[in-house]
Amino acid sequence: MPETVRKPAILLVFTALLRIGLGLFFLIVALRKIPQLDITADFLTRSRILPEYFSLPLACIGVGMELTIGVCFVLRIAYRAASIWGSVMTSIFLLLYVQGWVRGLELSCNCLGNQHEVINYPMDSGLRLLLLGAVLILVWDSRQPERSLWKFRKLDFSDF
Length: 160
Hints:
The chain is mainly alpha-helical. It has one domain. Helix content is about 65%, strand content about 0%. A hairpin with a 6-residue loop joins strand 1 and strand 2 (about 115). The longest helix is centred in the first third of the chain and has 25 residues, at about 10-35.
């Protein structure tokens, strides 16, 4: 049986801290958006991609996804699925910003947990691009075999 290549402990610590940090980030942002779902729906309406009646349901789905991804990251439950959905969701929000920038729309957003007018599209788009990069690191990490800092011995009871 071939020996698996072990990753350095520093990489294990880095990805664990990134996973927990992004999980807490998604949880905090979602919890801050819950009382203000109308602002998030207004952002979706003002981006003029879908009809207005889709805005509130999509805002609810987005907040629900942020909560789910945050919990999955923190607890490392369904890690691969959460990292893929996190990258999809972050990509969609990045595309919303970029298309608003290209079309010259004036957007106000409750994104990243605070209400603000988008006046600096390159900065806001760059922040979302950094977030996407961090989530893509977790997508890469989720593809790696399960590993631990602890060594476990496999016990064989086949003789009994």
